[in-house]
Design a protein that fits this description.
Blueprint (H helix, E strand, L loop, with lengths): L11 H7 L2 H17 L5 E5 L2 E5 L3 E7 L11 E5 L21 E5 L7 H17 L2
Antiparallel strand pairs: 1-2, 2-3, 3-4, 4-5
Length: 132
């Protein structure tokens, strides 16, 4: 028997209403960091029912574990679409099984290292600008 597809989330308010408080806070903080550090040419949309940021191509995604199909059991994932091209000297990101998407999972808002995230975002924007 097939299961029904998850209901489509059409707004950030609807997303935040579905999340437990801890995930909601982490998503909110990560969104603020991303939005403050992406150039105005980059945009945000809900894709796969989660915040997705893109320029010419995908830059990053914020995926709370409460939203199905993210592949994580708890916390909030910050994934970089071109993570394999990032200059991650500090090895802040996990390389996982995906060849391109590298990520970091946060279980508490205090785990977020804003400086490390900003550094990776700036590099991700640089890579996006070089893409065709």
């Amino acid at each position: 028997m097939k299961t029904a597809p998850p209901e489509k989330i059409v707004s950030l308010l609807q997303l935040f209403e579905r999340l437990p408080e801890n995930e909601r806070i982490i998503v909110d903080v990560l969104r603020q960091i991303v939005m403050e550090n992406l150039p105005s040419t980059c945009k945000e949309k809900l894709a796969f029912n989660v915040p997705y940021f893109y320029g010419k191509r995908g830059i990053c995604i914020i995926w709370p574990s409460t939203i199905p199909r993210g592949g994580i059991k708890q916390g909030v994932l910050l994934g970089f679409w071109q993570g394999n091209k990032l200059n991650d000297k500090d090895v802040y990101l996990t390389h996982g099984t995906n060849k391109k998407v590298f990520y970091k999972i946060f279980n508490d808002v205090n785990e977020i290292d804003e400086a490390a995230v900003v550094k990776l975002l700036k590099d991700a924007v640089r890579i996006d600008r070089l893409s065709r």
